[in-house]
Amino acid sequence: MGLPKDFLQEKCLNDWALCVAYRGSIAHGMYTQPTEPTSIDDKDIMAVCVPPIDYYFGIHAAFPANQLFPTNGTHEIKRDEWDIVVYEARKFISLLAQGNPNVLTMLWLRPNMYIKKTSAFDLLIENRQAFVGRHVYKSFTGYAYGQLHRMTHHAYAGHMGAKRKAIVDKFGYDLKNAAHLIRLLRMGAEFLKDGELYVHRDDAQQLLEIKRGEWTLEQVKAEADKWFALSEQAYINSTLPKSPDLAKINELSVTIIRQSLPYYRD
Q1: Alpha-carbon radius of gyration of the chain
Q2: Most CB atoms within 10 A, among 1, 43, 163, 202?
Q3: Range of the domain at 91
């Protein structure tokens, strides 16, 4: 599986990119083919880039329509089943420091999940412990509560809106949100205990059972209640630092931008 060639015309996925990698169901080992009755999976990609020097020292900020990243350091590309989010490097690093679960996964992927990875991004991976801390508890449980809310409020988001609606109508809850809910809670509790993010899931088969509608809503809620409690206990017992190492992270950000800029030309 690889990116369609025409995507590589996007400089943020090519010349400027520090990293382009799979995320979401593919990275978790939970991707289901569109032919499956309950499959509504996107092919999710995340990229991190350092644009040309004028982005940092020019006047783009005064002209939002001309900005390379008009939406606060973020650029999204959605086409058919492809869902790509691109972050400018400083934006990406700030999200790492905040403990954003989706962004943190980029530092703990299996090697075959990276489509492109530079030495500058390797520096982030080598120093990923700077982003480890008990502060992630609020991020993981917060995202989980969001999935719990959407699970029963029928948002029908995604590129397969009609199919997703039919699945929710059949089962009475959103299967994909339910699987995300349980995965997030388990990953957060593991992170608080071990300081490691286990992106590729050893429990993928069980999570796939949820995605395929083999669990009742009551079973999902009971499992979520259990893991909310386990997450809280993991937070109480955690020996991780209280917060990320912001001084180290700031130093990394400066180094990565400096290291990357010389490679890019107007």
Answers
A1: 19
A2: 43
A3: 5-132+244-263
